[in-house]
Amino acid sequence: MSPHIISLPVSRRAIIQDAQGQPQLVKDLPIPPLVSGTVLIKPAAVALNPSDYKMGAAFPSAGAIIGYDFAGTIIAVADNDDTENTCDFAPGDWVCGGVRGSNPTAHEEGGFASYIRASSSLLLRIPRSSPVAKLSIEQASTLATGLATCTLAIWDPTGLNLLPATPETPAEVPLPVLVYGGSTATGNLAIQLLKLSGFDPIATCSPRNYDLVRGAGASAVFDYSHPDVAATIKEHTAGRLKHVIDCISDARSVALCYEAIARAGGRYVSLELVADELLAQRRAVHASFLLGFEITGKSSGLPGGYGKPADPAKVQLGLKLWPIYQRLLNAGKLKPHPVQRLEGGLEGIVEGLALLKSGSVSGKKLVAVLEE
């Protein structure tokens, strides 16, 4: 299989896990070979996610490249030898997407690297010249994992299961949906997608981020720290709330979300694993936990509650929604989260992960701009 290329490098630099799962920079990793359905990308920016430090701490896998989200230029496209892996991209295209970082079964897959191999099926073109979209490379790098997570949370049968409504076929009845943690990057996207899909998103966050969350489309915003927030949400929704996405997913958020859900029950999606005993407090609530990289349809290869079986249906769901996301981006209808820029290229990522872990980042997405 001979790739179509601009200039194929020999080696790459990357941030990998050490034996304790901590990030370290290495300078001479081999370039992974292209296989059918993949492209080689030179990233110009990469975005940081909490999972970038959480996975290494919980499941150290020495040598695994860290990082999920990126934006950059395609420099090589594999020659596809089957009809299922057709590629609509070419060298020189500017794209954004995601790969699975800290992958214990495929160390070469992470995104914090000077060159990235990625599947072409869930890439998005960056509308760089559009006067409507006005999307920078840094902003584009923040999208993929959030979109994957929202896709599964909103539309997968194990999530809120809100099909057939989508941004292009909106729901006729604007059901309320609570996004707990609306000022997170994923919460921001969830609010936008729910609003575009005809639902009535409401959210919690810190008062300092009210404007950000209202700007995303939330019809009502509540102070997560207020002692009566659950009762206030229940009153606001007249006891009709049946759908919740919990972007924080700790003991307090679970309790508040469960209290706000209607007496008849509903569906609750967490973006982090929480204790079974917390979820069992209301039998009428269908609770699920998801990982954004499940959109690949592959097994997680992780133990315990993080163990996720292969599920090809999740890939198909992504393939259904990704063209819609592309059209929304092109039309300027999908807005990225505010960016906090990190300097220093790959080296700056290590410091950025420490900053993210400290909990001091609020209402912003950390993005490292990579050097040439």
UniProtKB/TrEMBL annotation:
Query: Hydrolase among the record's keywords?
Result: no
InterPro entries this protein is in? ADH-like_C, ADH-like_N, ER, GroES-like_sf, NAD(P)-bd_dom_sf, Trans-enoyl_RdTase-like
Enoyl reductase (ER) domain span: 21-367
Q: Name one GO molecular function term.
A: oxidoreductase activity, acting on NAD(P)H
Domain of life according to the entry: Eukaryota
What Gene3D superfamilies is this protein classified in?
Medium-chain alcohol dehydrogenases, catalytic domain, NAD(P)-binding Rossmann-like Domain
- Keyword Cell division, does the record have it? no
Protein family (similarity comment): Belongs to the zinc-containing alcohol dehydrogenase family.
Name recorded for this polypeptide: Chaperonin 10-like protein
The record lists the lineage as: Eukaryota, Fungi, Dikarya, Ascomycota, Pezizomycotina
